[in-house]
Structures are given as structure tokens and as C-alpha cells.
């Protein structure tokens, strides 16, 4: 506690102000709107637009085979893909605007759209 004696009243004011600004800005910076739809692309072109309020599954043909995409409870995911590494399947459920799963070897992608997209490293 020896180092605590070095702080002056003004230091505590600056620290308090910084903590308050961070606490208030955190939810504002990371909020996003509600997701409305999922856009499925094949070979860079739109294959289907899926309404997230309606549960369904579709099959998207690609160069390697069929990619299966499922919508359930206002979320979407790639259920199966013929690609070797299964990265898009491992993405899991996508629910927030801006989230995307890309099955590069099969040239299929699914992106959630709607409201305000959340900030991510690609937005920077």
C-alpha cells in the first residue's frame, strides 16, 4: 500500500472519470441490431436470401459437392460441407448482423444481415 500514498485527489478524479467513460461506452460500442436475413452466396453471387424468422434448411451445390445450411430460432449455420477442413461448419450458429461463415473450397458463404452491423476487426 506504499504506492497508494503517491496518488493525489486529482489522480483519483482522473481514474474515476476514465472508469466511468469505459463503463458507459462498452455497451454502446458493441451493440448491434436484430438480424433479419441470411444471404447465401455461391461462387460470389447470391444464391438465396433466407428469412431468419422461418426455420428451414437448404442445400447449395458447389464445385466439391453439396453444402447444407440450416436456419433455426433466428440463427443460421453451415451443417455440412464437403471441404477438407470444415472451418465453416466449426463457425457454429451465426445470429448477429455481420457474422459470416465461408466455405472457401466449395465457394459457398452465408452472412447474417440486418439492423446495425457489430464492430469487428474487418470493419477497422
TrEMBL record:
InterPro entries: NusG_2_sf (IPR038690). CDD domains: NGN-insert_like. The chain crosses the membrane at residues 12-30. The keyword Transmembrane helix applies. Keywords: Membrane, Transmembrane, Transmembrane helix. This is Uncharacterized protein. It comes from Candidatus Propionivibrio aalborgensis.
Amino acid at each position: 500500500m506504499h504506492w497508494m500514498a503517491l496518488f493525489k485527489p486529482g489522480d483519483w478524479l482522473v481514474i474515476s472519470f476514465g472508469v466511468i467513460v469505459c463503463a458507459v461506452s462498452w455497451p454502446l460500442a458493441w451493440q448491434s441490431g436484430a438480424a433479419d436475413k441470411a444471404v447465401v452466396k455461391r461462387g460470389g453471387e447470391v444464391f438465396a436470401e433466407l428469412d431468419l424468422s422461418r426455420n428451414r434448411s437448404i442445400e447449395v451445390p458447389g464445385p466439391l459437392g453439396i453444402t447444407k445450411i440450416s436456419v433455426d430460432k433466428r440463427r443460421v449455420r453451415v451443417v455440412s460441407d464437403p471441404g477438407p477442413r470444415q472451418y465453416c461448419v466449426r463457425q457454429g450458429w451465426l445470429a448477429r448482423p455481420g457474422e459470416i461463415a465461408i466455405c472457401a473450397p466449395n465457394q459457398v458463404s452465408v452472412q447474417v444481415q440486418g439492423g446495425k452491423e457489430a464492430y469487428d476487426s474487418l470493419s477497422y
